[in-house]
Amino acid sequence: MEALQNGNDKMTNYRWVICSMLFFATTVNYLDRQVLSLTWDEFIKPEFHWNESHYGTITSIFSLVYAVCMIFAGKFIDWMGTKKGYLWAIGIWSLGACMHAGCGIFTEYWTGIGSKAALIGATGDVVVTISTVSMYAFLAARCILALGESGNFPAAIKVTAEYFPKKDRAYATSIFNAGASIGALIAPLTIPYLAKFLGWEMAFIVIGVFGFVWMGLWVFIYSTPSKSKHVNKVELEYIEQDKDDNDTVKETEHKEKSISIWKAFSYKQTWSFAIGKFATDGVWWFFLFWTPSYLSTQFNIKTSEGLGIALIFTLYAITMLSIYGGKLPTIIINKTGLNPYAARMRAMLIFAFIPLLVLLAQPLGTISPWLPIIMIGLGCAAHQSWSANIFSTVGDMFPKSAIATVTGIGGMAGGIGSMIMQYVAGNLFVYAAGTTLVDGKEVEMTKELLAQGATFLQPQMEFMGFYGKPAGYFIIFCVCAVSYLIGWIIMKSLVPKYKPIVLE
Questions:
Q1: CA of 266: how far to CAs of 88, 121, 141, 410, in Å?
Q2: Rounded Cα distance, 381 and 354, in Å
Q3: Region of 124 on the Ramachandran plot (φ > 0 left; ψ -120 to 50 alpha; else beta)
């Protein structure tokens, strides 16, 4: 640390340039993920004759593939190295994002229909072929997107460990992780306009190209701190100030016994974490993927219109309140002296009650669309706070050599829960709508038609005074509202007290 003490040497700050690159990568990651949810209902659905079942299948498979790939992404980054590994990750997901734009061309080629207008105007049995072929085309692109996106956070965390000393890593991580929230805020301000004026295909391409631009910058900007010409001796010593501690930690971790996946399943603590993820991850992904469609179905508000953009922006602005969620356990510890696990569980219980506000979304929606968006936004903020804390419970309970394995199991459980939620939601909305014949045409049933005594081929769903798809949304909202309390109760039942695992 001699150079740090020399007042004549001025430290470079290149580590913050690297941190800004991680921030922009995470922002692009989230933008690419949002394009489909902000374009499918208004632009893609009419062209390919989709219903909610098609969209639910696509989002459910994406969730599952992303979860599975997360288990292996960290090892891939370690194997390839940070620079090449990150390039591969963002290159693959950017390719997957752009591939969405070619799904229409593929569908036209496969079905023999020569234009977008012909696809939209198709009738009869060919409609089934169009919707099925296009769905599988989007599934392929979506799986490639999930494969690449799964590498973003493992790579970013590894870069942070390379460029920041221990005391600064949490702060650096919070900065680049804020890219997710910024991406969510930018998405409704840009993507619907791109789709409206340039076409939905260009929305995927324009957003996807940002990833390739980032790759070009990364090639020239990144190298390890010890080899970077932009990092002087003073900054390098600052970065490596706890190098001796790192060597000790590595030696200690090497001596720790590893844990197999099957062995991890023998601990109640693993099941506690996995069930908590399974019960709640699907709620977050449901709101992320379905809220734009909900606004269209419930209020006939398009995301390409000013009101729709303002509503989606407000939703994610409220979600950013979650940045304070990580502080609550520390406040509880300081005031009560509880151990970290007990304080975390108490904080999670508080967060578990907040999503109950989502129960009010549908009733308040009869007054104004702003009220359900506020309720959903608060539920999303609670989820992000819950999520930050549930990941920390793994470190509370397991030794370092087992954290990655247990986290991977929980990620898989969360992905399965999300897959089920998306698939069930899509099919429920189709079933809830029902159909009827009026003047020889098939139309969506409404409460008004019911009152007129129309003859229905399929009864329209009714739930708590809402009919059709709004009734379906109300049912899913009820599930979302209570999922956190159910998850917390099961977690607490499995691990009632702080009990760290000691590997034998």
A1: 35, 56, 37, 14
A2: 9
A3: left
| Mean pLDDT value across residues 30-46 | 89
Other CB atoms within 10 A of residue 233 CB: 14
The DSSP line for 367-428 is T-THHHHHHHHHHHHHHHHHHHHHHHHHHHHS-HHHHHHHHHHHHHHHHHHHHHHHHHHHHH
Contact between 129 and 111 under an 8 Å Cβ cutoff? The reply is yes
Q: Which two tokens stand for residue 481?
A: 């509202």
Rounded to a whole number, what is the largest CA-CA distance in the chain?
88
pLDDT of residue 333: 81
For residue 443, what pLDDT is reported?
A: 39
Q: Alpha-carbon distance 350 to 259, whole Å?
A: 33
Write the pLDDT tens digit of every residue in 60-81: 899 889 888 877 777 777 778 8
- Model confidence pLDDT, tens digit, residues 479-488: 999 999 999 9
Q: Which helix (H) or strand (E) holds 7?
A: none
Dihedral of alpha carbons 200, 304, 292, 431, sign: negative
Q: How many residues does the chain have?
A: 504
Q: Are 481 and 380 in contact (CB under 8 A)?
A: no
Which residues, other chains included, contact 470 with Cβ-Cβ below 8 Å and sequence gap of 6+? 297, 298, 362
CA atoms within 13 A on the CB side of 471: 19
97 close to 32: Cβ distance less than 8 angstroms: yes
Residues 6+ apart with CB under 8 A from 412: 67, 68, 70, 71, 274
Q: Side chain identity at 178, as an amino acid letter?
A: A
d(Cα 425, Cα 53) in Å, to the nearest integer?
8
Please answer whether residues 74 and 154 qualify as being in contact, where contact means their C-beta atoms are separated by less than 8 angstroms.
Answer: yes
**Position 169: which residue type?**
R
> DSSP secondary-structure letter at 267?
S
Cα 287 to Cα 477: distance, rounded to the nearest angstrom: 9
Q: What is the DSSP letter of 444?
A: E
The secondary element (H helix, E strand) that includes residue 467 is strand 466-467
